[in-house]
Protein: Probable enoyl-CoA hydratase, mitochondrial
Amino acid sequence: TTQYNYILTSRPEPAVTLITLNRPKALNALCSPLFAELNQALREADDDSSVSAIVLTGSDRAFAAGADIKEMKDLEFSEVYKTRFLEDWAEMTRIRKPIIAAVSGYALGGGCELALMCDIILASPTAKFGQPEINLGTIPGGGGSQRLAHIVGKSRTMEMVLTGRMISAQEASDWGIVSRVVKEGDGEVVKEAIAVGKEIASKSQISVQAGKEVVNAAYELTLAEGLRFERRIFHGLFATKDQKEGMSAFAQKRKPNFVNE
Ligand code: CAA
Structure:
């Protein structure tokens, strides 16, 4: 496996890759080389047919405290424009396998945006989400204003973006940013995220890929287009062995044996 400087990768379960942001002295601030490594590790997991789900986490203190302020503070418009600064962050939205964020501590600015690019977010009770860019004389640049608006609506997004207020794990759960808050304890949220990954790994991986694709379409298409897209993909799955196996197994009252074809 590849050696990285800013992240750690492991296989806590045969079908689950765990990626841990590992820049503790900077609270996992997302400098460019860190994001390049993250994208590479995600691509490797996506290309590895033995991997079914990816868990992304940070430390107990910080999932990630944002883009690296020290790296970007002196940049000029011409540089960020010409080099498409931060545009490579969106590469992770092209990963086909589910990415589960396990968030403890600070998820601020780019760290919040990173979590929002994942497919499922689980939070520990210590998690804090925020878009504090306004305090730096700027605004979110990694998709926060748009993705939050889709999830929590205008008023809450405006409050977060215009005041920089951090919200608690409980608020994030009440608002639908995270799917749930797990029980307290070091490592609990990662353990739970790995369990979700393992559960997903037990399904037909074709259906999992299709499920992720159609849910994501809901954020880009009109309702009519999205419904048509879902129906067509649903129809398409009748061409798979796993649909025949899954439904036969149900009728025969046995467990399905999926072959991912
Ligand atoms: N970039 C660079 N370094 C950072 C950082 C960041 N986003 N966040 C924290 N660090 C560094 C600190 O500078 C400090 O380094 P030194 O020890 O060398 O001084 C170290 O991490 C520890 O941080 P603190 O001493 O500040 O820790 P704390 O517990 O007192 O405070 C915190 C924690 C409230 C998260 C505070 O660090 C903080 O406010 N961080 C910045 C949060 C922020 O503004 N994020 C948005 C960044 S902009 C962005 O993300 C743009 C975008 O949309 C893409």
Summary: The chain has a mean pLDDT of 97.
